[in-house]
Records
---
Amino acid sequence: MKSFEQPPALNLPEGQWALFLDIDGTLLEHAAHPDAVFVGEELRNLLGHIERRLDGAVAFITGRSIPAVDKLFHPLKLRIAGLYGLEHRLTPSGPIDAADAPADIAALADEIEAELGSGKVYVERKGPVLAVHTRAAPQLLAPAIQLVEQALARLPKGYRVLPGNAGVELMPLEAVKGAAIRRFMDIPPFVGRRPIFLGDDTSDEHGFEAINEIGGISIRVKPNGPTAATYALDDVTGAIAWLEASFETSAVAGARPAGKQAATESAAKLNIAATASSGR
């Protein structure tokens, strides 16, 4: 068992950091439906400010598709790996390296939707990734996992099942956040920097492992079980406050007032979790 410490102060020069961010559960509170979340101007200002300070070395690493993220954060565009790394946009204005949607996954989505038969369960079709959201009907999480695991045996080789806190996903084996992070770390402006990754769910664990191997800083938000992350934060509010305090963003337009008091207020909100873990 290991007790986590709070994330350390970022005492390296700005040009030596690279920042990778999960979205749902890390920067935004989860909602029953993925489209029900909202990004405020303050969060966009915060991320834009950090991206400028790090000379562009900021990327989303998310299970959402890239078009869905662009719509959510409009007009802000960052570098991004979508669908757990199956999609990439290596520069904010660059092309999207997208993934195809296999017919067998689309058919499976229809089957699971009919089997669960609940308007409270949302079956999300994300190209080669199938997500079953049960946040609005937690009693259906176990049946949903069972259905997806049974379907795995009928699919071609190369898929895996990833249960989460409030749903389950079926995805190709190569859909791992750690590989997406490593891809960014091999290109400018990330190459040669020390990486930081904030995430909140089981899908982020491979990313934490990759960050640890590189010698970076891995932070899990509101952990509720074993994790490979070295540090932990209580919740979304704490994660945003840590970013504000670390990158001195209180002077950003639309954010909190500048000055020592604002930094103190941000630090006071951190509420770092000292959690126990056996690793993963």
---
Amino acid sequence: MLDVLTIGAACVDVLVRGLGRFDPEREINPARQVELCVGGDALNEAVVLTRLGKRAGLLAALGEGNAADFIAGQLSHAGVDLSMCHRDQHRPSPVSVVMIRTDGQRSFVSPPPESLPRLPRELRLPKAKVVTLASLYQPPFLDLGFALSCARQAKEMGAVLCTDAVCPPGAVMEQYRELWPLVDYFFPNLEEAETLTGERDPERAAEMILRFGVGTALVKTGKRGCLAKNQKGSHQSPAFLTGAVDTTGAGDCFASGFIAGLLEGEDLAGCCRLANAAASLAVRRTGATSGIESREQLQGVLDGE
């Protein structure tokens, strides 16, 4: 049995650091560094959880071509179980350009959803202790039927169900009304929570999310850490402050740290501390997963608090 099955996106990221004002009219726009990495929400979580000592499997559509081969090679090297991945022979794996500003914030240039490789609609999930739908409101979960099938299979096998989100403008909780009561833990950041609920205050946003049946809402609040809220009450967990080099993948690492805590039997407060520690490591280096090396490294952050 897997410790965790991550379902969602896998792609190649071209990271561009130190890019000044981008001028599309110029033939060359100089940057301090350009680097090729793997990325995508589900992929990031699978890689990080493997480094944290968990048996992680990835369910993603890899497509065909050189990008897909690069992804598969990197994941095999990382020790991630790829046996559930699907090769879509009609579409290439996506390549995204991530332009990282000097303050660590970033913007993406990505292919449109309709061009992405696709998973078969009918899939049987392998047994896992935790299943995570890496990002709602994005492929492959734009198909509500697919999202519900994954969630119901997870609950039937007795797995804990987690999910994150990447919310486009206009996204609403109602889009997944049937799904929310199956979700044990939901990890939106504050901007996503505000988009979904119309509430800027984390406490009120979390309360709105719980009304849809989610077990525990965890609102990521950046430098303030996170707010966890369920029917038993609220818990504010402070961040481990550090200088941000690149925020790419911080949310995926947060989710991975939290899931690691669940697998280790931590209570809600302990899971939040692990999540915040993982996020703090993620932003210290360029790339979505390069900041996290091992469970011992993560423990060092906690011990140095």
